[in-house]
Write a structure and sequence with these properties.
- The protein has 147 residues and is an alpha+beta fold.
- It has a single domain, classed as Trna Endonuclease, Chain: A, domain 1.
- The chain contains 3 helices and 8 strands, in the order H-H-E-E-E-E-E-H-E-E-E.
- The strands form 2 sheets. It has a 6-stranded mixed β-sheet with strand order 1-4-5-6-7-8, sandwiched between helices.
């Protein structure tokens, strides 16, 4: 179990490192798609496998009613992370948090990151705001405890 936790933490740190590199190079003020493309470049340079804009069908009473489309799914089974990217002020992130939790539950992926490139963190550090989510034994995703 310790080895799997270490591998998961290593993957999370690499993803956060790529996001920080992207933010350091580009700063804030770009459209979300610019950050997504920059993240894909960074992930390739770090040799991290990923999928982008994967379509997940949504059905209601056996009828197709729409799709879920997470920005990035990073890693290989069993260590995959769903990443939702934003470039919005903090006030508009409630929907993004709920979407990320829905993606995690639908795909049964235990870890998710919401990465917001909108501005400097509250502590003035030159890094994007990153929120981590985990899926519990009940299958429900919740915000991870902060350090």
């Amino acid at each position: 179990m310790g080895e799997s936790n270490a591998a998961r933490e290593e993957l999370l740190e690499k993803i956060k490192g790529v996001a920080t590199d992207v933010y350091t190079a580009l700063g804030s003020g770009h459209h979300e798609t610019v950050y997504e493309k920059a993240m894909m470049v960074g992930l390739r340079l770090e040799h991290l496998p990923y999928e982008t804009q994967r379509k997940i069908p949504v059905n209601y009473r056996d009828h197709f009613v729409g799709e879920l489309i997470p920005d990035l799914i990073i890693g290989k089974s069993p260590f995959r992370v769903i990443v939702e990217l934003k470039a919005d002020d903090k006030k508009s992130l409630a929907l993004a948090r709920q979407q990320l939790k829905t993606y995690m539950e639908a795909l049964e992926i235990d870890c998710g990151l919401l990465i917001n490139f909108f501005k400097l963190r509250d502590n003035g550090k030159a890094a994007p705001l990153v929120e981590e989510f985990v899926r519990g034994a009940d299958g429900k995703a919740t915000a991870a405890a902060s350090d």
